[in-house]
């Protein structure tokens, strides 16, 4: 991890926090900080990615601005996290994408939809593109299954490889080692429950000084909604590939039920989290990362909403256009996956597993 301005500022603030330790019960960051006297750039990258941005320590801090110490851990860690995503990015030059993340994610989304739409309009007979289709294989009359699967599969596999290399660099930089099954299980439970957004039980300061579990619940809606949509796509692939049952499927079929529930969860989560960002106290928020966060939430919202609208209108003449728009947003999501705020899940997961390892080592020391 490079010595960026955010790294230097985080080091200064951690020295103050290490002397104070008032926030020890708030989240995993402060106990992990207390295990260290000095902070390498890798240590600070680990602590920043362990931070869930609940803002509890900012509202509790007697040294927060306008105090001369200017301690603002969530703001500084948010900037440091962004630096770490850029630093560990693979291929490395792509790390520059994080500097103007909001603009680039928005541009990729717009271009993916426009290029797919214009390409299909130029290539497809209008009678087919704007026609009504029903029964097995209706979607593939607009875009052949092989083309759809090849584009989605290749971009998804590349995204997984790029994120895997990034997380491997992060893991090495923050101490390396091989985690045993128990810390992996503990870290996984922390990821699935978002325990660090619980503020030690009373919730976080989502919007201002009031404690609530709102951000945690909305993040769950988005996360599990995304998981259900992924499950829907996986079941549909098994139906198509192994059973020969071609989409579109009936409303009560497993892929459609999973996709509908997942899509609704994603829309609720993305809408709520966007609203929270708009109305939240700006004090602990890092303005330089906001553009990328809004752009990703908007992209996830569009992926889910266009999927739901396609479901509702798939038997009409609008199906062709809606299918291409939906696939355009899905393609954009896969393309930006390793170079957007989406990577926070992978780095935060690795940081939580390292934290579970450290806690075990500290107990046995
Ligand atoms: S954030 Fe403030 S109150 Fe909390 S440990 Fe650091 S200095 Fe102390
Ligand atoms: S913002 Fe929340 S998660 Fe991050 S260090 Fe402060 S209390 Fe912990």
UniProtKB/TrEMBL annotation:
InterPro entries: Citrate_utilization_prot_B (IPR012830), NarG-like_sf (IPR036197). The keyword Transmembrane helix applies. The chain crosses the membrane at residues 104-123, 143-168, 221-239, 251-273, 294-313, 319-339. It comes from the Bacteria. Keywords: Membrane, Transmembrane, Transmembrane helix. This is Citrate/tricarballylate utilization protein. It comes from Humitalea rosea.
């Amino acid at each position: 991890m490079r010595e960026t301005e955010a790294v230097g500022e985080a080091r200064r603030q951690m020295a103050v926090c290490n002397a104070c330790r008032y926030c020890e019960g708030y989240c995993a960051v402060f106990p992990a900080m207390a295990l260290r006297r000095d902070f390498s750039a890798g240590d600070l990258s680990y602590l920043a990615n362990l931070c869930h941005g609940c803002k509890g320590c900012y509202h509790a801090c007697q040294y927060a601005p306008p105090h001369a110490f200017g301690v603002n851990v969530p703001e500084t860690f948010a900037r440091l996290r962004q630096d770490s995503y850029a630093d560990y990015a693979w291929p490395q030059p792509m790390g520059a994408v994080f500097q103007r993340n909001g603009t680039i994610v928005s541009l990729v989304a717009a271009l993916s939809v426009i290029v797919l739409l214009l390409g299909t309009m130029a290539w497809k007979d209008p009678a087919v593109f704007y026609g009504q289709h029903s029964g097995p294989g209706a979607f593939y009359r607009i875009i052949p299954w092989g083309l759809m699967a090849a584009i989605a599969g290749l971009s998804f596999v590349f995204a997984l490889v790029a994120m895997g290399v990034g997380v491997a660099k992060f893991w090495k930089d923050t101490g390396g080692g091989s985690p045993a099954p128990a810390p992996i299980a503990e870290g996984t439970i922390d990821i699935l429950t978002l325990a660090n957004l619980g503020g030690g039980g009373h919730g976080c300061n989502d919007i201002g000084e009031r404690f609530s579990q709102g951000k945690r619940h909305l993040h769950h809606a988005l996360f599990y909604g995304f998981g259900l949509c992924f499950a829907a796509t996986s079941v549909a692939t098994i139906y198509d590939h192994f059973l020969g049952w071609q989409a579109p499927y009936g409303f009560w079929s497993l892929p459609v039920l999973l996709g509908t529930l997942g899509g609704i969860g994603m829309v609720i989560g993305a809408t709520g989290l966007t609203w929270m960002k708009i109305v939240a106290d700006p004090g602990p928020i890092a303005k330089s990362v906001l553009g990328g966060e809004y752009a990703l939430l908007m992209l996830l919202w569009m992926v889910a909403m266009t999927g739901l609208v396609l479901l509702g209108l798939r038997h009409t003449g609008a199906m062709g256009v809606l299918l291409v728009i939906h696939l355009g947003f899905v393609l954009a999501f896969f393309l930006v996956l390793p170079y957007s705020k989406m990577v926070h899940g992978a780095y935060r997961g690795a940081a939580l597993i390292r934290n579970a390892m450290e806690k075990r080592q500290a107990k046995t020391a």
